[in-house]
Amino acid sequence: RIGFETLHPGPGYGGSCFPKDVAALLDMATSSGYDFELLRSVVAVNERQRDRVVDKVRAACGGSVAGRSIGVWGLTFKANTDDLRESPAVYVVEALVAEGAQLRVYDPVAAADATDQLPGVERVADPYDAASGASVVALLTEWDELKTLDFRAVHASMQPPHEVVDARNLLDASALRLLGFGYQGIGR
């Protein structure tokens, strides 16, 4: 069953199982002569969702990320795993690097060599380091620890325009705005 326990805002689905299972189901349908248009549309929407997050970061940077310092919170496809396979966060990071952004990335459990797979990305030890000097922070994985950060300290360490792109709607948008952040969530 799909319900509130599994449906959350985000930068798209990922992981090692679900994308593979969707692809297999599409392949089975095609092999049987069935055009599974609905499932093809699900895949297309998922791909566009990752691009929407990149667009939000780009907009937060004033239209271009080239040369901009951006903090990233989270690399794994979901919290409480170290799995980067098919992670929409990795896709977003790679897209931003390809556009010339300078990224400082924090993830509490992704393998230490995770950033070896991501040239041009600096891995940092905590979320405050990721935000330090950044004009935009992109929250890409819903780690609980990110909810309880000292956002005054985060704001003080950042550069203008102090934007947060919350691709998981994890944070309190109103509280962040009161502290002087610009905030963009998903579907808000």
What do these coordinates show?
The structure is a single chain. By secondary structure, the protein is α/β, with parallel strands linked by helices. Helix content is 36%, strand content 13%. The chain is built from six helices and six strands. It has helices spanning 18-31, 37-60, 88-98, 127-131, 151-157, 173-178, and strands at residues 69-73, 102-106, 121-123, 136-139, 163-166, 182-184. A six-stranded parallel β-sheet has the order 3-2-1-4-5-6. The longest helix has 24 residues, at 37-60. The protein is globular and about 60 Å long. The model has no long low-confidence stretch (mean pLDDT 91).
List the helices and strands and how they pair.
Elements: H1 18-31, H2 37-60, E1 69-73, H3 88-98, E2 102-106, E3 121-123, H4 127-131, E4 136-139, H5 151-157, E5 163-166, H6 173-178, E6 182-184
Parallel strand pairs: 1-2, 1-4, 2-3, 4-5, 5-6
